[in-house]
Write a structure and sequence with these properties.
Helix content of chain A: 25-40%
CATH architecture of the largest domain in chain A: 3-Layer(aba) Sandwich
Distance between the termini of chain A: 21 Å
Mean pLDDT of chain A: 96
Radius of gyration of chain A: 21 Å
Low-confidence stretches of chain A: none
Largest sheet of chain A: 7 strands, mixed
Strand order of the largest sheet of chain A: 2-8-7-6-5-3-4
Number of domains of chain A: 2
Number of helices of chain A: 11
Oligomer: homodimer
CATH class of the largest domain in chain A: Alpha Beta
CATH topology of the largest domain in chain A: Aspartate Aminotransferase, domain 2
Number of strands of chain A: 13
Structural class of chain A: alpha/beta
CATH superfamily of the largest domain in chain A: Type I PLP-dependent aspartate aminotransferase-like (Major domain)
């Protein structure tokens, strides 16, 4: 199986990720922050080490302002619902994932107003359009760092500056960029940074987190046992406990720490270059296949390592199924949980086939995929019967 | 290290738990329910298998009515905040964990009324007191199945009958009983059952779930990508997706499935008998040590395998530290994230030392702990300097 579905979850992981998880489960095992005994303290240290690794990666001064949860979706829910109040206005883009649009949809029902700034046919947004959408009652800008459909990189630094100038909070969804692109919460004026642990940070599923800038108070999404300040009736004020009720995914976070260490050791630049090379190779190969239409920027440097395309007028699900069943290639066909993005691209009906690359993919895999796609187009290979192939 | 902190998280896990996690991370890896490719389908099957195992364990007809999250705290937040509306009244006990009391505390600020039925000095509740607390505006009863401080087993079946008779919803916190005691959601009339994966179900941390009875609609705690119905602007109606936004902890859930299989293969009765024997042995041993006061029922059969006690007038934290540092015993001293329970017992100031047993503990470990405690009492062993020992 050749795996080109890294934008959903990266696979394989560096070997040290499993080793760290195994160590944690076998040798540590205990619940961090809940007792004074040696195992609990060791679990605490593991989790704190992961916080420190991430803080170094994102230039976060205080690691305790990173709070962990199940995934980036939880982090975005905490950021969006924890921040916005009825009567407030927020600006976002037309390329967002459902993890942003759905919480906003719920808040719209509770009196929050939302402006979705339209992106162009490559998924790109203009900073002046974002500026023009700001109103006197605007409190925040929420934006993905890169589209999960087209990979289009948003001008996050410029929008961060704009947010700072206008006194707005800036929430960034780094689902496709954490571990891929440089993220500096200070330089980019990011107030709330949501990231998954299991994508380009190479951690296991079940990990994700939110950076909460100093001075920013959110309504917690969940309350419960925090392992400290147990005597107060509500949530404690102190971070990370305030937003981390219940037992953390210690084992997964140990794995995530190993994943981030791997990235910092290999070097973000080297990883980025490799993924960009694969993206460029794929984009150039697709250009040569008549009948394939690529969406998003043509320049690989303007993308996260994600490429979506349509094959003639064929439903994306059929192509996904053929790639899986005939050629043993795992990719993702459908709406990619981002119907707004597909509406922006005009592909809401046909949907798209998405390839997404990781540091562990190789150029020969991309070559093989290109040959398969050429064959599908030239021979008009039909989809196996009874299969839908469409995920989300 | 002898580990008696299983009520926080069980350790060690059966070997097949790690094996299942390793298999999932190495061989499957993909995101379930998000694509049609073979790996994603395999991930989906793993998660579904865990749902089926749990459904069989709890006598749940439709496995899709089990929704997974980070932990039992998340499940309780979804149950409590998803169900209760301002102006409604709810009945609970005075022995609840902060994972119940804190969400209720927040809801009280939003117009939900809460009656905490007082338990006696053993942590026991009388069904007639619960009945007497029901008012015309009561919509639900929320109760732990067994106290995490005293292990006291609540009369869940009787309270379930009462709830059914009165037309109330019944929410059960099975944090200390899932995998320990028989739970039958049909026979016990449980509408919402919250359980952790990482305690007596032997899964890894980062797993937990909620059973949602048929016909019951909750407001989701989180919205986002659900891998299906991506075109609808809000959350889909269908379970489990409605309450499972974002990427699940596939690897952890594979481990949880192996944990539940282990329990079903060994047999709940055998596990229960072993844990009860250890509890009885410990209770009887403690009785013989002058100066130790045990809280909760004297009869091991009336407890989950949890025993909390005070040593003379000494702060619990000191005893916890001595046990850890001098004797290499991991237990838990403090408030156990359950201040209400400690108020009920009259131990809010002194706090308690808690031992909690698992199937993997042995009688000789209990004997050793009893000898250590005797020595601490007889020699009045002081706590090491500079240590607090108190967790939560």
């Amino acid at each position: 199986m050749i795996y080109f579905d890294n934008a959903a979850t990266s696979w394989p992981k560096p070997p040290e990720v499993l080793a760290a998880m195994e160590h944690c489960l076998r040798e540590v095992g205990a619940n961090p922050g809940r007792a004074g005994h040696k195992l609990a303290l060791a679990a605490n240290r593991l989790v704190d080490e992961t916080r420190k690794e991430l803080a170094a990666l994102f230039n976060i001064r205080d690691p305790d302002r990173i709070v962990f949860g199940l995934n980036a979706t939880e982090a975005l829910n905490l950021a969006i619902k924890g921040l916005l109040k009825p009567g407030q206005h927020v600006v976002t883009s037309s390329m967002e994932h459902n993890s942003v649009t759905r919480p906003l949809h719920v808040l719209q029902g509770r009196g929050v107003e939302v402006t979705k700034v339209p992106c162009d046919h490559t998924g790109a947004i203009r900073v002046e359009d974002v500026a023009a959408a700001i109103r006197p009652d605007t409190v925040a800008i929420i934006m993905t760092h890169a589209s999960n459909v087209t990979g289009t990189i948003m001008p996050v630094a410029a929008i961060g500056r704009l947010a700072r100038e206008k006194g707005l909070r800036f929430i960034v969804d780094a689902a496709q960029t954490a571990g891929v692109l440089d993220i500096d919460v200070e330089a980019m004026h990011i107030d709330l940074l949501a990231f998954p642990g299991h994508k380009s940070l190479f951690g296991p599923p079940g990990t994700g987190g939110l950076y909460v800038a100093e001075g920013l108070e959110l309504t917690p999404l969940k309350e419960g046992g925090t392992g400290s300040h147990s005597d107060v009736p509500g949530q404690p004020e102190v971070l990370p406990e305030r937003y981390e009720s219940g037992t953390l995914n210690t084992v997964g976070l140990a794995g995530l720490g190993a994943g981030v260490k791997f990235i910092r050791r290999e070097g973000m630049e080297k990883i980025r270059r490799h993924e960009q090379d694969l993206t460029r190779q794929f984009l150039e190969g697709l250009k040569k296949i008549e009948g394939i239409r690529v969406y998003g920027p043509q320049d690989a440097a303007r993308r996260a390592p994600v490429v979506s395309f349509a094959v003639k007028n064929r439903p994306a699900g059929d192509i996904g199924t053929i790639l899986d069943q005939k050629y043993n290639i795992a990719c993702r066909a459908g709406l990619h949980c981002a119907p707004d993005a597909h509406r922006t691209l005009g592909t809401f009906e046909q949907k798209l086939v998405r390839f997404s690359f990781s540091y562990f993919n190789r150029p020969d895999e991309v070559d093989y995929a290109l040959r398969c796609l050429l064959e599908i187009v030239e021979k008009d290979i039909p989809a196996p019967e009874g299969s839908s192939g469409c995920g989300c």
